[in-house]
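Below sits the subject:
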Amino acid sequence: MASNASVWGIEVGQTALKALRCEIDGGEVVANAFDYIEYPKILSHPEADPEELVRDALQTFLERNETRGYRVAVSVPGQSGLSKFFKPPPVEAKKVGDIVRYEARQQIPFDLDDVVWDFQMMPGSTIEEGYALETEVGLFAMKRDQVYKQLKPFDTAELEVDLIQLAPIAMYNMLAYDRMNDRLEANDFDVENPPTSTVMVSLGTDSTDLIISNGFRVWQRSMPLGGNHFTRQLTKDLKMTFAKAEHLKRNTRDAEDPKLIIQTMRPVFNDLVTEIQRSIGFFQSIHKEATIDKLLLTGNTVKLPGLGPYLGKNLGYTLEVLDGFQRLQGPEVLSSPVFKENQYTFGVCYGLCLQALGLGPIETTLVPKEILTDRIIRAKKPWALACAAALMAGFVGHYLFVQRDWSVVREERWSSAISQSAQPQSYATTHKSTDSDYISKLAYLKNVGQELSGNGERRLIWIEFLTMLDGLMPHHPDYQSPSQYPSPLELPYSKRPDIYIDSIETQYFDDLSEWYTDTIAERYRLEMRNWFRITRREQATEEQRAQFEEELMALTGPEGPGWVVELKGFHYYNDIIGQEAGNHVRKYLTENFLNGAVNIPLTDSNNLITPETFTTKEMGISYPLLLNDPGLEEVKIPNPEYEGAPAGQGGGMMAGAMMGGGGQASTNVFGEVEVAPKDKAAADDGPKQPPSFEAKKYAVTFQFCWQPKSRSLRLQLRAEAEAEAAALAEEEAAAMESEEPANEI
């Protein structure tokens, strides 16, 4: 909120000390005093003593003007500090400070303890429901020793400074309030389509500040070119003293040959245009959405003949010279000849006053915190002393009253009663301690019991998982298990539909969407189309096919924590065209994992184990996927029944086949598999055993997602679904009953 007290805005320039005092009167900013004190020499002149010149100017200022009771705001040159603007990610508004602190460590090339810094969210920033969304943060910093150096003349003059601001930021405050206030009050800022920006060039003595702003956002750069560079160019080319060149520059129109002077300063004109063009070009490279429509010039160097038109012509923007302030009132100040003569230089003072009055968009200050703390303590010292005196008086009175009471009721008169009262207290304390121990033990036992009872279902998860895998594996309906197959001579491997699993690998994901990449998603859609073609093509209508394709394209993949399980194995069922290789996997394995069901043993209330059928969806199975289609491989399978077969060949399947064929398998002392027929006649009359069998082998790599559900959760979800279905059936029945009388009529 704006203050109603007057404030001083002071700029210690290179050629003069400028000060402006403003207040708020009737909602308007009114200037009620000013001062312009020019130094005998420019501060950057080799023969000048800057500290002495500034000290004398401040002393003159204090002699002319009243400062007691007024807030004082001063500016520091833009090149003395750092100003950075960045966009933090969308976060809670209360966490913006943490992000700015991290950004400060990255952007400020000094230890933060050696720097005075402050930050602020810029106008137009969006905060919704406590979150900072489309925001831009301004970070401002200055080395601590530089701050104290700037404050030293004011400390010497015993003038307390309440606010320190960078000169370009003060100019932005002036520009935003004086020329762009309507758009700021409307607060209608579109990041993608911002309002037009204005380039303000503040021409100083040794440097030039360039500020580009649309009111909501600001970008600034200090360029090492100023009025002194014109003077030095004259001293260099015309071979004259600095003082004479400065006088000639200020009075160019009255010179004998003004054209010669302008031509002499032409290189500096060109350098200034080049620097401004480079700065604007860099700004537009990082703010491509910005458009610039105006060039605003300020500073006493603007008085140089031909400078304004030259800049406007070469930069290609509409030129405007800041020769007045549109929203500043105060006819006595504004009509003063001295103010009118130097009004180009009072933009910084005006901006400082606006910030001190609470009207500037940027409210940061570079006054060290320790100085503000010392002032607060100093201001409160009288009150603290008064409070201490009052407390001391209260303590003395309290002591006197207590002393009087103690003289009547002495401790020795109550010592025996106090001793007796301590015994029940000790007794009660002992029992409370014992009771607390029992409560702690009871809580521990409860926790142990909960852990033991709660782990019951979790221990069964993987057992149920393996039971589910076994139940989903495809088997030929004519055979119960591979161990009951006859010899390969009677049933070739190519007739056996079983899929043999070599390994099972699992990987846990905190979010299964990490597994469901674009490659996996494309592969899954292709596999689902193949599965639909193999299992549903004949009975599906065109409408069903279209609906399936629409649902397939709408899949977004699994979400949430879970496991990805990979099965690796093979099968030999590859003789029937159209049902071989991957089609066999899709027809049985993919179908089972999509729409299959398994029997999981459950224990009822009577401790009887009964199987309960659960679908794969109820078990948490989803997204079954034949990961690749490698094609068929011609292999030779060693025959373990062949006499003299090498040791170690064959496997559990082959041994099972032998056992199923009626022979007895054993291993001799050399590790070789020996097969003994039931009798000699069987060995002699049986078909001759070949050394190996030729088969077509298809390698299977199959993946699916598994999000485990405890059996209590499965039963709960099933009960809820049945209850919902029952309620829906009742509603449909009630609706049908209500329609029957109408049908009878």
